[in-house]
């Protein structure tokens, strides 16, 4: 039996943030990054909380949140005796807040009841609705996924106004992360009709809107649709998990420090080609599913070869239009550094929890080949 449950309440549409005014007598611990404070996004949120609440802001989060920041956050939130956590930011702030809540309730104060609200400011990770958090051990150069329903936010607030400040590079990196979530959830070994429906819708939304938000970040209609796509894709992969693309991205991100979405995008064409595995059986299920997605966005897929080629070519063209690097080398990674970490990355990717859901079981040699093919322009 499979149980499908979406436990996070989603507040969306005009004035979604105003719902915060319903809370009172709370000790609200806001987890965010310095830009969110500087940009006024935090004030826009705390202004909604009535004076009957006590508020403390922890704004030390950095991209790919390291364990040291989580530890500092746990100390601060316990000293403050928080009854509510509001995470505001991209995947890094939300994931860090998830880990702070988890370790507080697991180790520091097992009885603590803490309401958890996630407010994403990037349209990318879908972390506001997932039971997934990615924490980095910077010294060891390793990313650890923490996967448990105990970290699911109770409420996610989707307000695209908060994303408008995101510059073009962050907009497209995070948007392509959403596309990767759709593709991986759709071909995952755990995919089902429910996750497929979510992945298909989010995939279409990204294709219809990503160029618009890349060209004009103030296009609020396209921003809201990308924000919805990000959340819907999060719901899809919360059911189906991800795959090798994310397994490699987690491993390589910890070593090479390339933004998460950018890294996923560099790998996408190679991963699709590898998973489609046309040489073994052109009509295998994964190839057929990629062809479904190709058809959904109006591409020709009269047979698997044509479908896979049109899908990978379209992603390569999209990447070009979005001015994204097409290889590790064009991102600026030096050959020497790449060679130094290549094998470590491949080994860590095979151990990553997301790789387990990949439709084709990779060997270390397979991963090294994908990495090498992604090193130079493709
Ligand atoms: P991020 O949170 O790391 O933020 C990247 C940069 O964008 C930061 O400098 C931040 O200040 C800036 N930023 C965020 N919102 C902005 C805005 N509105 N305007 C201007 N600047 C803004 O980026 P991300 O891509 O959202 O998150 C990546 C992290 O999420 C990685 O650690 C990745 O491993 C993790 N992740 C988590 C999940 C999950 O389900 N939990 C899924 C995928 C990725």
From TrEMBL:
<feature type="domain" description="Alcohol dehydrogenase iron-type/glycerol dehydrogenase GldA">
    <location>
        <begin position="9"/>
        <end position="159"/>
    </location>
</feature>
<protein>
    <submittedName>
        <fullName>Iron-containing alcohol dehydrogenase</fullName>
    </submittedName>
</protein>
<dbReference type="InterPro" id="IPR039697">
    <property type="entry name" value="Alcohol_dehydrogenase_Fe"/>
</dbReference>
<dbReference type="GO" id="GO:0004022">
    <property type="term" value="F:alcohol dehydrogenase (NAD+) activity"/>
</dbReference>
<keyword id="KW-0560">Oxidoreductase</keyword>
<dbReference type="Pfam" id="PF00465">
    <property type="entry name" value="Fe-ADH"/>
</dbReference>
<dbReference type="InterPro" id="IPR001670">
    <property type="entry name" value="ADH_Fe/GldA"/>
</dbReference>
<dbReference type="GO" id="GO:0046872">
    <property type="term" value="F:metal ion binding"/>
</dbReference>
<feature type="domain" description="Fe-containing alcohol dehydrogenase-like C-terminal">
    <location>
        <begin position="171"/>
        <end position="374"/>
    </location>
</feature>
<dbReference type="InterPro" id="IPR018211">
    <property type="entry name" value="ADH_Fe_CS"/>
</dbReference>
<dbReference type="Pfam" id="PF25137">
    <property type="entry name" value="ADH_Fe_C"/>
</dbReference>
<dbReference type="InterPro" id="IPR056798">
    <property type="entry name" value="ADH_Fe_C"/>
</dbReference>
């Amino acid at each position: 039996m499979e149980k499908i449950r979406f436990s996070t309440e989603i507040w969306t549409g005009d004035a979604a943030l105003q719902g915060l005014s319903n809370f009172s007598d709370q000790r609200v611990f806001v987890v965010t990054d310095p830009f969110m404070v500087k940009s006024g996004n935090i004030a826009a949120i705390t202004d909604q909380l009535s004076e009957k609440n006590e508020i403390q802001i922890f704004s030390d989060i950095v991209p790919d949140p390291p364990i040291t920041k989580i530890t500092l956050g746990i100390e601060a939130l316990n000293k403050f005796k928080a009854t509510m956590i509001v995470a505001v930011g991209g995947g890094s702030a939300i994931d860090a807040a998830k880990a702070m809540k988890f370790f507080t309730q697991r180790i520091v104060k097992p009885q603590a009841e803490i309401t958890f609200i996630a407010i994403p400011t990037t349209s990318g990770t879908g972390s506001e609705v997932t039971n997934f958090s990615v924490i980095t051990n910077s010294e060891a150069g390793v990313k650890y996924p923490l996967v448990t329903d105990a970290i699911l936010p109770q409420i996610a607030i989707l307000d695209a106004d908060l994303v408008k400040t995101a510059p073009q590079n962050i907009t497209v990196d995070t948007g392509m992360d959403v596309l990767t979530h759709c593709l991986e959830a759709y071909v995952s070994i755990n995919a089902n009709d429910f996750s497929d429906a979510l992945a298909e819708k989010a995939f279409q939304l990204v294709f219809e809107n990503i160029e618009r938000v890349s060209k004009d970040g103030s296009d609020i209609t396209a921003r809201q649709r990308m924000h919805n796509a990000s959340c819907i894709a999060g719901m899809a992969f919360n059911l189906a998990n991800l795959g090798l693309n994310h397994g490699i991205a987690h491993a390589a991100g910890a070593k090479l420090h390339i933004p998460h979405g950018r890294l996923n995008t560099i790998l996408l064409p190679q991963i699709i080609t590898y998973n489609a595995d046309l040489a073994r059986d052109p009509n295998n299920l994964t190839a057929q599913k990629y062809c479904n997605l190709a058809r959904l966005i109006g591409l020709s897929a009269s047979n698997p070869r044509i479908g896979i080629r049109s899908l990978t070519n379209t992603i390569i063209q999209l990447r070009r239009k979005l001015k994204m690097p097409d290889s590790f080398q064009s991102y600026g990674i030096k050959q020497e550094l790449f060679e130094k970490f290549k094998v470590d990355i491949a080994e860590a990717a095979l151990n990553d929890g997301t790789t387990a859901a990949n439709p084709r079981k990779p060997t270390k040699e397979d991963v090294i080949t994908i990495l090498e093919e992604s090193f130079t322009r493709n």
